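Reproducibility note. Readers wishing to regenerate the assembly model reported in the main text can use the exact inputs given here. Chain order matters: entities are listed in the order in which they were concatenated for prediction.
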Amino acid sequence: AKKEKPQETTAEAPQQVVLRLAETHPPDYPTTKGDYKFAELVKERTNGRIVIEVYPSSQLGEEKAVIEQVQFGSIDLTRVSIAPVGAFVPILNALQLPYLYRDSDHMWKVLKGDIGKELLKSVEDAGFIGFGWFEAGARSFYTKKPVRTPDDLKGMKIRVMENDLMVAMVNALGGVATPMPYGEVYSALQTGVIDGAENNWPSYYTSGHYEVAKYYTLDEHLRVPEIIIGSKISLSQKLTPEEIEILKQAAWHAIEYQREQWAAYEKVAEEKVRAAGNTIIPVEDKSAWQARMKDLYAKQSPEIQEIVRRIQEVQ
Amino acid sequence: MKHVIKILNLLYIVTLFLAKILFALMVLIIFTNVVLRYVFNSGLRWSEEVSLVFLVWFAFISIALGVKQNLHIGLHLVNEESLPPLVNRVLHILDYAAKGVVGVIMMVYGRILIVFTLRSILPATHWPAGILYLILPIAGFFITAESLMALLGIPTDQEAVESVLEGRMTIREYLQGVFHA
Amino acid sequence: MPDTGIATFLLLGTFLVLIILRVSISFALALAAIVTGIYLKVPLMSVVQQMVHGIKSFSLLAIPFFILAGELMGQGGISKRLIKFSNLIVGRLPGGLAQVNILASMFFGGISGSAVADISSIGTILIPMMKENKYDEDFSVAITVTSACQGIIIPPSHNMIIFSLAAGGVSIGRLFLGGYLPGVILGLALMIITHFISIKRGYPRERWYSFREALAITGEAFMGLMTAVIIIVGVVSGVFTATESSAVAVVWAFVVTFFVYREIPLRKFPRILYSSLKTLAMVMALIASASAFGWFMAYLRIPAKATELLLSITTSKVLLLLLINVLLLLLGMIMDMAPLILITTPILYPVVVDTLGMSPIQFGVMLVLNLAIGLTTPPVGSALFVGCAVGKIPIEKVVRTMFPLWLVMVTVLLLVTFFPPLTTTLPGIFMP
Ligand code: NA
Ligand code: NA
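Running the prediction on these inputs yields the following structure tokens for the assembly.
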């Protein structure tokens, strides 16, 4: 029954490779748009041979499960926050330390420089290939009373994610860390069960928390970038080393586009919050905040402390 | 063979005892957490993580229980009595073959999964993430063993085990009953 | 590269063939996932990992707890007290016991999430009682079976939690609230039709109670009904999550059963844990394997293809919703509720919610009510089976009496489908 000549097609164009990229955010989110850009660039640069299909909205599972699947090769690529990857690659936890950077430019200098490249490489020991970083904004405190200095936080109950580091950070600032599921924060703020919480501009706005916590103190304590990682097992089977290199460069180029998308997205939220009449408190000098993190930094492993030292040296 | 079945059943009874304990503990953990939050304004940071590990364990033990006690129903589009015995026999074999295959996959790939996740940790308790999957080979083992017995037509003291589980018979009575018989 | 068309065919085909061959549904789902995984060369760790992750959900924890609370109250004697309490309220109507049956199910529904539990506790008491009092046995069974379905849409409802999981985290509190009005309306509609049937067939009324009796009856029933109050007030006020409220409800039910009602001794508790564990076996197996199956559906983008297919038939919202409801009713006739929720939600959600714009709450209530009707129909209907077993009559004899009751249920279903305020008003007021 084999009438066709199977060689015919393969001789002209090499067989197409489909890679699946798992994303937790919805399709119109800036990060997802970054994924699509990455896919577009890869397709262009391989003349259509490598097709990356993006699965948004956690279709292929929640972050932690997806990371495991990337590890054993069921999913080829994923865009995730650094936080869950830290459980597999401890050195990445360095990037989750509070008040690590002076500002956004500082972070991107670090990520695009040697340190960033080293850290991308570091995921390989855990069975991943690191492709690039995405912007996820900075988290700041929003409260029911104005907070201008760390002293103002004293005794305030601040909701944090269920995460040792965040609890330690808020406590070090003098607040009372109150871990609680995200969905309960609105009513907890409303009823005064907590005095504040922390998040980035877009979440502050879309969650509606800005309606019940009117003061936003831009201390920018946390800047945790997103990371695109791939599966070492599956990609080394499906792609040549040259092609993996093409993917890496495409991811690197998608970063700029994703950062623009993020900035635009953040700006919309910021304008809405300002229009609502909320008090935005800028923090010009972060040294008073950062000073309180001394013990927290000192508790980190020597490897992490070394990375931190190098990050702080970057001008 | 009789002794093998005894040992299997004993392991099985112990596992189910564990499930009951986990069940009660889960209630206790969540309840305590609520009380702590509203009365003492604090909480157990590990409560969610630990309850979820317990839930997974508890659920997979219940799945194995379902195979043992034949609780997993299928579609009965036609009345069993109206089919020829041979057809019923074949369908019965197919059902347990399917359960057996799933049981084997749970054992084999559950083990690989544990090895893969050995290095990562759960954030609140710092338990190895593999603990979540540890129940896979265990439940898989019981499912496979039970399916195999059913396929081979070996009786497994079903009713005696049920009596023990329902508290109508002690483990000792069960063991003595068999070894003296 | 493996072909996604063949893989889709393998996934759905293996599942269909296996369930037709009477393989247990949960194992058919898992095996279909395994076969597809082998074809797609996806490491099979994915299958078992997804099974675990399907279970590993904090909201899922509420299901064992609701079942345990229901089991405690059921074995502890709540049904008897609810029946007495209902008798106090509606016993004097024509066909008093039938009305009691409906009202008691409404109350019981506030504690248990399961129609079968309702029939085996309330039906076991009321069906023999009704027969003794000259009610036709077909009617006694039919009204028990139909009214038991209220327990599924009146919160708490573990099927709503299953929907919430399958839909990717729709608020359980809002779903619960959404189920209230349709549940109560279904109950009232059943009471009205029962009223007319009872007058026509000359069913008796029940006796009066003295004030002192009434007080005692109300007091005892109230202790049990507090379980329902704890759950609802807890979830709606945001004081507890659904999971927390279910744990508090277990503790409350535990105290009421062993220290207030005291019909069963404390040493029966392990046995109650065990019987809950048995009830859970099937649900847990389904959730685990449907999660692995669902992962491959997502991987193969089957929901998107199904949306395309449905929209290619018609783009009229009314027609599509009718079509979907008919499809679900047909599926519900042959399959049980939990597996259908788990399998159809990921497929239908993109069409009904994302494309047709129905609110997730309304869709959830519609789906659950629709499949609840399926529990009362032949050839496969667990509520009908248990009801007929309790009433000791063959299914054929009940079916004719069921027709007017099915009509009532389908009417409420249509109301839920085409009249959004029915499901969205309460969540809008209490959990905006
Ligand atoms: Na209910
Ligand atoms: Na049915």
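We highlight two features of this model. The interface with chain A takes residues 1, 42-43, 45-46, 49-50, 53, 168, 171, 238, 241, 295, 298-299 of chain C (CB under 8 Å). The mean pLDDT of chain C is 91.
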